[in-house]
Amino acid sequence: MRFETKVIHVGEEPDFREGGAGDVVVPIHLSTTFARLRVDEPTAGYEYSRTSNPTRDALEARLAALENAEFALAFSSGMAAETILCLSVLRPGDHVVTFDDLYGGTRRLFDRVLRSSTGVEFSYVDARSHENVRAALRDNTKLIWLETPTNPIMKLCDIKAIAEIAKERGIVTAVDNTFMSPFFQKPLDHGADVVVHSTSKYLNGHSDSIGGAIMVSDEKLYRALKFSQNSVGAILSPFDSYLLLRGIKTLAVRMRAHEENARLIAEHLESHPKVERVFYPGLQSHQQHELAKRQTSGHGGMLSFEIRGGLREAKSFLEHLELFALAESLGGVESLIEHPALMTHASIPRAEREKVGVGDNLIRISAGIESAEDLIEDLDAAFGHVA
Ligand code: P1T
């Protein structure tokens, strides 16, 4: 089955079992608990909704299919998914190698929650070179954590090359695939063991549901994740599961539209006199454009750029936009714009931020699916307010 068909059908086959009405849309099962006929046997397979729920099951079947995985789990947020993954694969004293450019919240989780509560150590490396990843490995390294492209500088890493290094040593490779979505990139096909998503972004696509997901094919790892998810209770609600099932149906058409707009905006910005540099993997000028073409089937809807000047110029540009909402998050049908240093990445100390390139003149765009002409006119009008 092809991707465009999977997003609509997997997990939502009409239910013709006895009593089933043949719904083409899976019902929202709100029941917290499920009655049984015998004490020692859950009659329909369900016990309690924290453990499993029919609406969430339908969603998890679809999520697994999209990443070519055997299993998927849906969580209450992307951060909940990340936390459960770390708690399931790491033990006190273990070590993690990770990209030095990451979503600020992920870095905050690593440095300010997990490091102190579990004693796990994190090494941040420029994973654009897989040799940097290899050089950072220790005997106690248990996990390699990657984003590609990174949030917000759009750096890439070679999933296949890094997964090969990890496999030699029995290390788990996890890829946060939020930016590309499974429409453009499938990390498990390149040898990664785990895919993580903030479903709050492209998968849901409408900026109205916070959620997270993990996809894996290894059954032992799945069982460990499921056990932690049930024990901690970090589950996606039935209503959010429904929203996500609904949003995912248009993933393929949305992603093509996001990409087209991002490309047109990136090309426009690249030739704009008030722009210093543009970071979009689909541009010839992107340092890793060749890797992008090899590893992904498209370049997605995210880009960032440096405005000429500094904080003053960035602020007056951002505060004069009409159509772009000045807001955190990404991946919805509406275009968003933000200032990573003051917004999504504010929790990272300035020196650390600047080391990876998140300066005061960096601006990140999540290209929506409105008219590209309208979006470009809005950007140009705001540039007009920058001295
Ligand atoms: O917000 P939440 O659903 O908990 O997901 C966290 C998360 C994980 N991974 C990546 C790559 C992300 O971008 C995010 C959330 N990011 C934003 C809110 C943002 O504006 O970048």
Key descriptive features of the protein:
Aspartate Aminotransferase, domain 2, 387 residues, binds ligand P1T, 12 strands, 5-stranded mixed beta sheet, 2 domains, 15% strand, 14 helices, 38% helix, alpha/beta, Aspartate Aminotransferase, domain 1
Largest sheet: 7 strands, mixed
Task: Tell me roughly what share of residues is in helical segments.
Answer: 25-40%
Radius of gyration, whole Å? 21 Å
The number of distinct structural domains comes to 2
Count of helix runs? 14
Strand element count:
12
Task: Note poorly predicted spans.
Answer: none
Query: Structural class from helices and strands?
Result: alpha/beta
State the gist of this model:
This protein is of the alpha/beta class. Helices cover 38% and strands 15% of the residues.
Structural commentary:
There is one protein chain. This protein is of the alpha/beta class and 387 residues long. The chain has 2 domains: 3-248, Type I PLP-dependent aspartate aminotransferase-like (Major domain) (Aspartate Aminotransferase, domain 2), CATH 3.40.640.10; 252-383, Aspartate Aminotransferase, domain 1, CATH 3.90.1150. It is built from 14 helices and 12 strands. The chain has a 7-stranded mixed beta sheet, sandwiched between helices. A 5-stranded mixed beta sheet has the order 8-9-12-11-10. Helix 2 (54-66) packs parallel to helix 9 (238-248) and helix 3 (78-89) packs parallel to helix 4. The model has no long low-confidence stretch (mean pLDDT 97). The structure holds ligand P1T. Ligand P1T binds at residues 77-79, 103, 105-106, 147, 151, 176, 178, 198, 200, 210, 212, 328-330, 344.
